[in-house]
Specification:
- It is built from 16 helices and 26 strands.
- The radius of gyration is 30 Å and the shape is globular.
- The longest helix is centred in the first third of the chain and has 23 residues.
- Strands 6-9-10-26-25-24-19-12 form an eight-stranded mixed beta sheet, with helices on both faces. It has a five-stranded mixed beta barrel with strand order 1-2-3-5-4.
- The protein has 592 residues and is an alpha+beta fold.
- The N and C termini lie far apart (66 Å).
């Protein structure tokens, strides 16, 4: 017999009754039933119940064990009584009567329990991450992640893509976040960077004549943490294709992503029709460029109904250039208490509030009437026009926000989500996807300058001619894939022509010399015959978070950082030794 085990803790069933077996694993829990000891023995694969009574030669030793000790059990497989069968686990028909036991690894008193999934402070769970990973849910999440990566890789190969690896140490480049810099010992005063993404390398692979590339790529960005974003590193499915247009990328990627969500979605519906929504329409209808389409509410502009109306707050607002009034329809929300609650929601989110109208049975029994402060101010003719435009009826409501869209859009989007949840309008057991397209190429910064609004390597729609006009009117061949309120994929058709790249960067304030300095390798390559190409990248951590139905990305990463970008288990970041600093010719300047 093997020195540690003849079977795993998930293998034994009624067919093994009567056999002598050996198991090794962790003591999940111990139960003392008056002279009969029961141990749930756990390994990577599952749990087997072990029992020992006073007649067992292993009884005295088993009495000493505690939770999370690693032990080896020798024993005989016995069938459980029919009333004691546990149908929830594969080994629920049997138990192992212990005849021998050896301690392979005792455990000190636990700083946090493994059994029971008891909630514990995050700092404790991250400091003792190896214990947290023994818990069933986290263990399941890590296996899900591994299987998702395997499935993605297989599906990409089956789609005709080839996997290549790109460098981890490279040059700094602006990707929208801060780089992690790595000092060079051989070149004092110079620094490498950890790649924010394999963006330039995958484009160079296309220029080199390869086609349909993919990689499960580690990416490094020094970002502020969020619930759906790691503050240091993450993994993405990186994709690039030659001789393609936008639709070709969509057609290649959808079967892969849809297939993975169908395989690991736990029976939840996966929509097969992925609409394309212009960025400007997404902000208008949903208040977000990553809309949750499980919520059917779509916002509309209703400015004309308030222009010159008796509601002076909106009427005066509309006299200013660039302002508008938007409505959030709320089917079945026609109750004053609900409307007041949503108004308070907007106030807590930084707005003065949301005006509202709701439609109810008239007090005199004459039919439907509009109610609420706004209805009294603008009169029945305007409220009826609003109701008709929004397609609402008896028992429904509408909420209104006004101003410059960029000032209230995000709050409107959150209010839309809150209204949809409160009213039970969202279809929860489904994955809804949408391609967000036609992103603006440039945006105006707070100091009035023009800068790239998204990926600087995207091709402007209209090419060089488009760059001759108003930069803020130029759209890029840039796209995102949204799923249930999260950005899952970002990508674009690349700018592969040096003259157009130089002009685009010039508009954003980068002279040709700066482009050559920052992107010299790619610009040089484009001068020697570059194919039209495009691609995208999917955040694997975020996809697994959706599939696992988790709200925090740290629950699907094996060894995550905390909110302060600290690794509490390994003690990172740490202070370098004086010897290391001298070797790198660096000096740490203390804080003021």
């Amino acid at each position: 017999m093997h020195v540690y085990r003849s079977h795993t803790c998930a293998e034994l069933n009624s067919a093994h009754v009567g056999q002598e077996v050996r198991l090794s694993g962790w003591v999940h829990r111990v139960r003392d039933h008056g002279g009969v000891l029961f141990i749930d023995l756990r390994d990577h694969y599952g749990v087997t119940q072990v029992l020992a009574d006073s007649d067992s030669p292993a009884f005295a030793e088993i009495e000493k064990v505690r939770a999370e000790w690693v032990i080896r059990i020798d024993g005989q497989v016995k069938a459980r009584d029919a009333v004691l069968v546990n149908s929830k686990i594969p080994t629920g028909e049997i138990e192992v009567y212990a005849t021998g036991m050896a301690v392979l690894g005792p455990s000190e008193e636990l700083p946090m329990p493994v059994f029971g999934e008891v909630d514990y402070p995050e700092d404790t769970r991250l400091t003792y991450r190896f214990l947290a990973l023994r818990r069933e849910k986290l263990h399941r999440n890590m296996m899900l992640r591994s299987n998702v990566v395997r499935s993605l890789r297989n599906r990409m190969w089956n789609q005709g893509f080839t996997e290549f690896q790109t460098p981890i140490i490279t040059a700094s480049s602006p990707e929208g976040a801060r780089d992690f810099l790595v000092p060079s010992r051989l070149h004092p005063g110079k620094f490498y960077a950890l790649p924010q993404a394999p963006q330039q390398f995958k484009q160079l692979i296309m220029v080199a004549g390869f086609d349909r590339y993919f990689q499960i790529a580690p990416c490094f960005r020094d970002e502020d943490p969020r619930a759906d974003r790691s503050p240091t590193d993450f993994y993405q499915l990186d994709v690039e294709m030659s001789f393609v247009e936008q639709e070709d990328v969509f057609a290649a990627v959808q079967p892969v992503i849809q297939g993975v969500f169908e395989e690991f979605g736990g029976g939840r519906k996966v929509d097969s029709v992925w609409p394309q929504i212009a960025y400007r329409d997404s902000l208008l209808w949903y208040g977000s460029d990553k809309p949750d389409l499980r919520n059917p509410i779509r916002m509309q502009i209703v400015s004309e109904h308030f222009r010159g109306s008796g509601f002076t707050a909106f009427a005066k607002l509309l006299e200013n250039e660039g302002t508008e009034i938007r409505a959030i329809p709320a089917p079945t929300g026609g109750r004053r208490k609900f409307c007041d609650r949503m108004n308070e929601f907007a106030q807590k989110d930084g707005l003065p509030g949301m005006g509202y109208i709701f439609w109810r049975e008239a007090e005199d029994g004459s039919g439907m009437e509009a109610a609420g402060p706004l209805a009294k101010n603008i009169g029945p003719e305007r409220t009826e026009a609003i109701r008709v435009q929004l397609g609402l009826g008896m028992g429904d409501a509408a909420f209104f926000l006004g101003g410059k869209p960029e000032q209230f859009e995000s709050v409107a989007g959150r209010a839309r989500n809150e209204i949809g949840r409160e009213l039970g309008l969202c279809e929860m057991d489904t994955f809804r996807f949408a391609w967000i397209v036609d992103f603006p190429m440039f945006e105006k910064t707070d100091d009035g300058k023009i800068d790239f609004s998204h990926n600087p390597f995207s091709m402007p729609q209209g090419g060089m001619e488009a760059l001759a006009g108003d930069p803020l009117a130029v759209y890029a061949y840039q796209y995102d894939l949204a799923c249930n309120g999260y950005e899952l994929i970002s990508g674009g058709i690349r700018n592969h022509k040096p003259e157009i790249m130089y002009r685009a960067f010039e508009i954003a304030g980068y002279p040709n010399s700066e482009v050559d300095k920052r992107f010299g390798g790619m610009v040089k390559a484009f001068k020697y015959g570059a194919p039209p190409h495009g691609g995208c990248a999917m955040g694997i951590d975020r996809a697994v978070m959706l599939l696992a139905d988790e709200q925090n990305i740290r629950e699907v990463i094996m060894f995550p950082m905390n909110q302060r970008a600290e690794d509490l288990l390994m003690g990172a970041p740490s202070e370098p030794s004086n010897e290391q600093l001298r070797e790198l010719r660096l000096r740490v300047v203390p804080k003021d």
